[in-house]
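During the no-cost extension, the postdoctoral fellow (Dr. R.K.) reprocessed legacy sequence entries with the updated structure-token encoder. One reprocessed record is reproduced below for audit purposes.
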Amino acid sequence: MPEIEEGIEEGIDEGVDEGVDEGVDEGVDVVEPIDSSEEEEETDEEAAKEVARGFIVDDEEEEEEDEEEVYRSRKKKKHKKRKRERERSPDFDEISEDELELIEGNRSRSEQNFKRLKRGRQEKSRGSAYDVKKIFDDEDMDDQFGNDSDFVVDDDDDDNIQFDEGDTGQRGRGSYSKTYYDDVSEPEKLWQNAFLDIDDKYSFAFDNPEDMDVEPAEGLEAILDDGALKQLKMTSDDIRIKNTDLPERMLLRSEIDQGRKLTDTEIEEATKMISEDLAYFNEQRPTNQFMVAVKRVLKCLGQEFFEVPYIYTYRRDYIAEFDDDFSRPPREILTRADLWHIYDLEYKYRLFIKKREEIKETIKKHRIDDHVSTFLSEASTIEALTDLHSYIHHAFSQQIVAALPSRRHVKKISFYEDCRSRNLDKLVTKFGVRIQEFGRSLNLGKKIHYPQPSGQDPYVAAQEFASNYTRKAEFTNLNPVELALADAVKMLSQDIGFEPSFRKFVRRRILEQGVIVVSPAPHKDIDISHECWPYRFLKKPISRFRNSGLFAKIMRGEDRGILKVKIELDREDDFLDILEKHIVGDNRSNLEEKNLIDQKWDKFRIEAVHAAYSKVLCPIIDVWIKARLKDDAEQWIMRQCMLGLETKLNVAPFKPTNMYEEDDEDVDDDGIIRIAAASWGPGGRHPTECVCIDENGQLLENVRFTDLRDKESKDFYDFYQFLCDHKPNAIVLRSYDNRTKYLLETVQDVVGYYKNHGGEEIPIIVINDEVAKIYRLSSRGRHDYPDSDYNEVVRYCISLARTLQNPIREYAALEESITSIKCHSMQSLLPKEKELECLQRAFINIVNEIGVDINDAINSPYKSDLLQYVSGLGPRKVDALYKKVLIEGQSMDMERRYGSDVIDVSRREDLNKVYQLGPKVYANCAGFIRIRPRAIESFDDTRIHPTYYILARKMAADALDMDDDEAEEELQQSNRRDFLRKLSAEPDRLNDLILEDYAKSLSKYYESPTKLILHNIKTEMMAPYADPRRPFEIPTPAKIFEMITGETEETLYEGLIVCVKIYKIEDKAVKCQLDSGLDGTITIGYVADHRIDSQELRSRFHIDQQIYAKILSIDKIKFSATLSCRPRDVNGKQTFQSQRSVDSDYDYDAEARAQTLKQVKPRNVITHKPHTRVIQHPMFKPFTFAEAQDYLRDKQSGSMVVRPSSKGHDYISITWKLYDDIYQHIDVVEREVLVVGAVERRFEVENGKYVYSDLDELIVEYVEAKSQKVEALVNHPKYKVTEASLRDFLNMSLTVNPRQSEYGFCLDTRTPGWFSFMFKLKPGSQIDTLIGSIRPDGYKLKDQIYPTVIDLINGFKRNVSNASRNSGNQAYVRR
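Re-encoded structure tokens follow.
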């Protein structure tokens, strides 16, 4: 564990070895950086001319050479080039040929990594005359070719790429875009003709003749850059995954041999380890039945490579107990969540055995003592291996370092090695402590260790080593002998602290008796409204943190500097007594009887063992315990998030009663026929958008109405006609805020009119819009329905309709954005990768329960998202499968067979035989893939696995009283549905089969087929692929209220004091609005403690005034609340629905002591005022700017939080992470406008330069847009992390290539949101800097916006080149 290794470095005080691998690191040669001397500076003009020399060359066509001759020529030219560069460089004598080759090799690899398109062969060019106007010309096109040399050439996007016909390797003249050329002025044409090589987008005309040596390009990796390959899923890893016959998710587990089968011995070992871990996590004892179930699951995972869905479906009898008649639900030994946990633990076990093999190789290679092999054979946890690894590198560091290559510059020697070099280890041996025996003595609980007395006084023994401490003693209060003994005690403490058996004893004791102590950080007070309040003082045994996410919350408090977390040992004095008892010569009770010499040695031994525990081990244990408890907490949260999303996904499509006949084969049973959706977006003033989608989720029609409320208006009757034309089976409604209630009333009027005029009843449903809010502003939504034709409200409506039509499909379409959906209150505590993983597992669980129609998925992009979650598959294998279906020409076969050009898979077995999924992948996925509607095999649209088809046919034949031949003939002659209908129509025929006897009679086909398999086959034939999801339920008024307002029983209740904003003042009441958009009414009787009239009421308040009010009652049907602002109700009388309960292990004594010691001076109070309401947004956090930075510190770039602003109620702050340790705080002004009784919000950024209708739109179009620009900038090969590294890059580049100019850019750490564009003309010249800013629409440099990085680079080159032509080379900004 890396945390443990770090703990060694952090915790060992001064004299302790700083790292497990320190001994190895010390043996590594240190190569000093090369110091380049600077040339004498010339004038800027001379520098420009000098740099321009050789930059611009003309193309010259040559005939293609023989490949062997070209290869020999390349080698010769490279050698000559290096020689010339060494001669040109003033530092050539300091840079060896190997070093130059290494630098150039690295640059070459860097170029290849970023080249979008590469040429297989390049032609030679002639050099042109030197000209100051030709500075900064690139040898290759930047970004397209990734050259790191010079830089003036337009970098065009791939869309403009043109190839000459017949170009087979030798570059020929291409034709430039006429439109592009015609758009430029005459002077610019001359400039382009001279510099930009616009005749050929892929020209290498600017290459120096020596640089024309490029190996022929082979394959996609030679054509596309890494980003494009990843997007196309065509990297080498992607191809390996596609071609390997193992489940994709197993192949994504790194650092192990994924295809290695675990041996039976390893299965036994893993069973013991995993059973203990899982039982500990679940707070249960690992019974024999439990361990047998775990072992069976491990065999499925580690030997047969079956994924969790397969095990849960087809090996259910391994993990559950069933009644003989299957009349009651099974009693689960292992839940599906347990299976996923075992899946993770099996991966950790594979890492364990890999680490064990590595240690075994180290022992063998360095011929380490046999007792270490004994420790290795006894190691049963990753912690034990880590301890052994640390011990080896501590005890045998000299052997390991000696085996390394010769060392020239060892910069640092550890304290332990320094003492050993002074032979102080000889003094340590005189302590007489046999450390291995001491460790065994502790673990046995029986004293078997007795030190070997030296018979010599310790001070006398140390005399011979005192000479090494004479000089050091001059600076301390100790004499040389005492210093020698002190260092010897430190050495012994390290020897004890690194002993594996000693660590094992301490770890076990900490787990059994350790206590987590939590308290507020210094100068941090936490009030009752803060999330840390229930556990701000805590003293909780480690064993009680199981099965909860509490520790993850505690660690977040510590990370933010709010809490202080310590690990203490209960009854630590007793523990130290045990250590002392086992380290000294005799029992402590006889200490007085010992001779004086032994007493002196015992004193030093005790001091050493105390130091081993407190200074060596405690810091390591602290890191280990925190990491372990946090990992357990995150595992629990992952379970809850998975189950929470499953609840959202496990909902069948909405189906009105009597919509269609059950046996209608043309009905898509995955969704209803037509859905209409309506919304008016962010408020009532906007037009009402209405859409209707078909059974495939595609838009049929989009209409817009401006005045639906008026029953006499044209819009009212147009909406009625819309319903008559499409006859939707349901209408789904939702607006961005609580104005949904008004929309609901309006649509009900139209639907009522429709029904009264002969139409059928149409259900009107309000649903959760969490998916629609993301889709309306997503890149996918804009791709499906572009802004040029559809606004965001239309996309919002389409997503609402699709969500009602088939919820799981719409959730799946979010892909990685699914993490924006809140599935559990602690979800934000998870790292992004774990959060995404657990949510994907929810999809896997539900998708494999309902199955996926592969032909639907292949032919409809909208329905294709679910296929990747099928057991054994994944996005890469699905991509490969789809391409194979096209390539194999099956569509033509289907056309001949059915007269259709639809791509079709006709039978399950084709997935393996024709499309070559591979036996293991096919076994995993076959039962979950449905073949419809023209399946040839009768059971291909059932959950019956192909393995059991012969069994199913036999059961079907016997149930229908047919022999095998008759059944086969029936299968050939009848439609598969007819065959299965006969069975489902007469279920008694199947029920009459005696499964016990039937299993025996079929033993010739299977080895003891279980009763459960037979029962499942029978059930599936009676109801093929019955939907296990719960029916869609129309939300109750309370649920609708919660969905629209975001308020729950815990966040909004009677007695709560809230902040409201007044939008209307009447004679007898004040109308206001809560932060959540809920309307509030304060009647005149609840304004003051005394009676007032209307005039005084109006004089007290004004529009947009913010006041505090107490909630008296809530009407969830009308979406309103009655309030009171009387002083006696709001002044100091904040009430809570129930007093917040504290943790059961809350430390009241510690709280009392803190109160006693509390000082009068002002403190930094961490509090959230009771009346302050949170912003209803999933990204909202009640943070200060400092807390926001701490929260984002370990998040990925682009992460953000929405938080309150210190500037006032009308402001919101957004803090987002640009890059590591770079954060920008964005002030958002929230303005509200009263429009026809409704409050409309506007969000302004940069003094109103950017205005958005809601917070989501601002986040997507402003913050995320800027984040994408930052990502593009930092992913460019010219980007460097810091200004210092950029300067080093420019200097080194010109040292290696002195005739070239160089540029690069970095983010400005002092002004987040800005960047520095630096360039250098030649060695010895100054580095000049241009300052630019990152905008949502591009990069601003010198008052010009450039949409892409390529445009930015081209603009920079033109600016610098124009300046060079007009006034020589002048710097713009110097720092």
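DSSP finds 54 helices and 31 strands in the chain. The radius of gyration is 37 Å. The remaining legacy entries will be reprocessed before the final report is submitted.
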